[in-house]
Specification:
The protein is mainly β and 116 residues long. It contains no helices and eleven strands. Helices cover 0% and strands 56% of the residues.
């Protein structure tokens, strides 16, 4: 059983920063990809950033230069440092783990609200 627990969401003014964390527990494969997704009210869930266990990163164009994904493999934890936040970043942020066997798991999400 794999569980993902996100934390760090909250309310912030535009231009501010937040750091999200996602801790994975259970049977975690050594080769995996941990990623962040978000879903704004009335919109589809969209990709934000990913980081493989090998260190390969990928970002959505909308967050490049503002968000940074990092991870602590020893703790099976991935982080999302979000700077220069904009109102359009308001969403529920989800963590996803993609295992080597293509099984994927989602956290329950953490809400980020950015006010103008």
């Amino acid at each position: 059983q794999v569980q993902l627990v996100e934390s760090g969401g909250g309310s912030v003014q535009a231009g501010g920063s937040l750091r999200l964390s996602c801790a994975a527990s259970g049977n975690i494969s050594s080769n995996n990809v941990m990623s962040w997704w978000r879903q704004a009210p009335g919109k589809q869930r969209e990709f934000v950033a990913s980081l493989s266990s090998g260190g390969y990163t990928n970002y959505a164009d909308s967050v490049k230069g503002r968000f940074t994904v990092s991870r602590d493999n020893a703790k099976n934890t991935v982080y999302l440092q979000m700077n220069t936040l904009k109102p359009e970043d308001t969403a529920v942020y989800y963590c996803k783990l993609l295992q080597r066997n293509n099984m994927q798991y989602w956290g329950k999400g953490t809400l980020v609200t950015v006010s103008s």
